[in-house]
Design brief:
Length: about 450
């Protein structure tokens, strides 16, 4: 047996699945592409909930919202004794750290008041920031720097103005480049890795707060991408049956965002991802300078996606692909370079995979599954289907089909992903697809029953 591998977990916030240049030509992410080329990219990866808090709680614990009771964003504190993948890695003999956003506890007040709580989950070194909106009313090491440089008030005014008046406004952040959250997180993590002298293997969780809105990418990245070169938004899905049940998606109207504003949002989003990707490149450079690249596991995920004008919507909170489908990359010993996995994968699976690679004990009560058996061909299939939940509704996705049911258990979304990859033809309620709907419902019920504990 060789030395235990180091672990670098790179996480974005609101990074949609297709915003990788390994997948699409409207973004540029060469460093993340390198990770995919030297390892694996899961093509059908889904969040366990298309909103921050429940998705992150599922990632930490390997449990679904129907287990945790966290169905939407709320003031929630993950208990200090909750079994987590981070503690399993630490207990396997690792030096552990987190930089950036966890959102596993209430993002109010001073985040440093809850450092002991974060450490109880298995994270020894903690430098946490809140998300873009919560940073207007919380304190952290980063906001202290904003105060010292006299820029915090301008940041708060800017975010509040966007939220109240023009939610899809695109303009550079009033923060100086060096104090932009994604730059801060990347540099703090890189500094910790450069200075790391602990004889134990290390696990570093780098959790960027971008490319989450607001669309405030700083220069020079704000001008890097031409709005005219951005892909046109996907049109709203049609309802082929007037009788089909309704769900949360039906309560989210088309906002009527002008096409030119959609293009500007996408160009700004691409710029923010390019900024983050350059920070990822710096992290890779530090690992290489330490001589540890050959024995370092690198994973890349996001908590959920971003509609970015598709279907006339922004943000997330639905089960359509721009919101629910996420990037999922893994570079690890034994993983064949250039692997593209078509099996459904869930966000929580990254935790089980990292514990497996670290030689740790499986997390008690976790429903996450390690990807290693399928990547090393010890097992043929990873999952038959991926499941996601939000506000009492449930989605299940196989390689061909996606179905969502409302709180009453009635199917309101059904898409044939092979013939309709953009999900523009809703087949829910269609008589000719009743057998498919029944089969998927049975699959969903079996999964729910098997994961009740």
């Amino acid at each position: 047996m060789g030395d235990p591998p180091n672990i670098l977990l790179i996480m974005m916030d609101q990074h949609r699945w297709d915003a990788l240049s390994a997948v699409s030509d409207w973004v540029s992410t060469p460093h993340m592409d390198r990770i995919a080329a030297e390892g694996m990219r899961a093509d059908r990866a889904y969040t366990n909930s298309p909103v921050c808090v429940p998705a992150r709680v599922s990632l930490a614990t390997g449990r679904y919202p129907h287990n945790t009771g966290v169905w939407e964003n709320c003031r929630y504190d993950l208990p200090g004794d909750a079994p987590t993948w981070m503690r399993s890695v630490r207990d396997a003999g690792y030096s552990t750290s987190v930089f950036g956003k966890t959102h596993l506890h209430r993002h109010v007040g001073d985040l440093r008041d809850r450092v002991d709580l974060v450490r109880s989950w298995g994270l020894e070194h903690v430098d946490e920031i809140a998300g873009p909106r919560a940073s207007t009313k919380t304190s952290s090491n980063l906001t202290d720097l904003w105060d010292q440089h006299g820029v915090r008030e301008a940041y708060v005014r800017d975010v509040q103005n966007r939220v109240k008046r023009d939610p899809w406004a695109v303009r550079p952040s009033p923060l100086p480049f060096d104090l932009y959250p994604d730059v801060y997180v990347g540099r703090q993590a890189a500094g910790w890795l450069q200075a790391h002298a602990d004889p134990r293997p290390w696990m570093c969780w780098v959790s960027f707060s971008g490319p989450h809105e607001p669309w405030d990418c700083p220069e020079p990245y704000a001008s890097r991408f031409d709005p005219a070169a951005m892909p046109a938004p996907i049109v709203a899905p049609d309802g082929t049956s007037a009788d089909r049940p309704r769900g949360l998606l039906d309560k989210r109207p088309d906002l009527g965002i002008p096409p030119e504003d959609v293009a500007r949002m996408r160009a700004d989003y691409a710029g923010n991802l390019a900024l983050i990707d350059d920070q990822v490149g710096e992290l890779l450079r530090v690992v290489e300078e330490r001589g540890e690249m050959d024995n370092t596991v690198i994973a890349v995920v996001s908590d959920h996606g971003e509609m970015n004008g598709d279907f006339g919507m922004i943000y997330k909170q639905n089960f359509l692909d721009p919101s629910a489908r996420i990037p999922f990359l893994l570079r690890a010993p034994g993983v064949p370079p250039g692997t593209v996995l078509d099996d459904p994968v869930e966000l929580m699976d990254v935790g089980a995979t990292l514990v497996d690679l670290a030689g740790g004990e499986p997390v008690a009560g976790s429903h996450a599954r390690s990807l290693l058996p399928v990547l090393t061909q010890e097992r043929r299939r990873h999952r038959q289907a991926a499941m996601s939940e939000f506000r009492g509704e449930t989605m299940i996705a196989t390689p061909q089909w996606k179905m969502a049911v409302n709180k009453a258990g009635d199917t309101y979304l059904l898409f044939d992903l092979e013939s309709d990859p953009h999900e523009t033809h809703n087949l829910a309620g269609s008589p000719e697809h009743r057998n498919t709907q029944d089969r998927l419902r049975s699959l969903m019920l079996r999964r729910l029953v098997s994961t009740l504990r």
